[in-house]
Sequence to fold (200 residues):
Amino acid sequence: MKVLFATTNPAKVRRYKDALEEKGIELITLKDLDFKLKIEENGKDAIENAYIKAKAYYDATKIPTIGMDNSLFIEELPKEKQPGTYVRRVNGKELNDDEMIEYYTDLAQAYGGKLTAKWIFGMVICDENGAENYSWTKDHFYFVDNASKVRNPGYPLESISVIPEFNKYAVELNEEEKQFYKKKDNIDNVVEFIVNSIHK
Fold:
């Protein structure tokens, strides 16, 4: 069964593609369809933005569609400076991967070289039966003001995220460490949510 993942981020697709294929679900992307809508992602949180994306693309394609978004909370920042759902959009500009690394390392430097960070994720699936949503968090890691030279395209902040359990950058974890850290990504539960929503 084909399911559309309404994202242009290749790293998001890679994260779930193989596990879903094992369950009989083929993830297709906006690139596969050569199709992109102009969507105003103006929700107040990750779930609302995920719903906006999923609903718009389902309505346009009639293919069951996954929308996903995330918001970023940084413990040391006051409310008015929180990135929230605008992780890539800073002062009205959409940042590329390198610009994101530069912006957040500068921010960490301004607060003493280290920031305590937490991701809040939202996923929504829209199909002919309506919409289902799921949310989860990934916390207990730090942004630092000195970036790794290793890059994961689409997930630039992994190059400045230090995982306390290993005292290593997320992007530099070995396979065993990645498996441990992947539990924080909640991949098994996310895949289960997708499968159950599609086959309900």
Observations:
- The longest strand covers residues 130-144.
- Residues 88 and 95 are 5 Å apart (CA to CA).
- Helices lie at 10-22, 30-33, 46-61, 97-110, 175-185, 187-198.
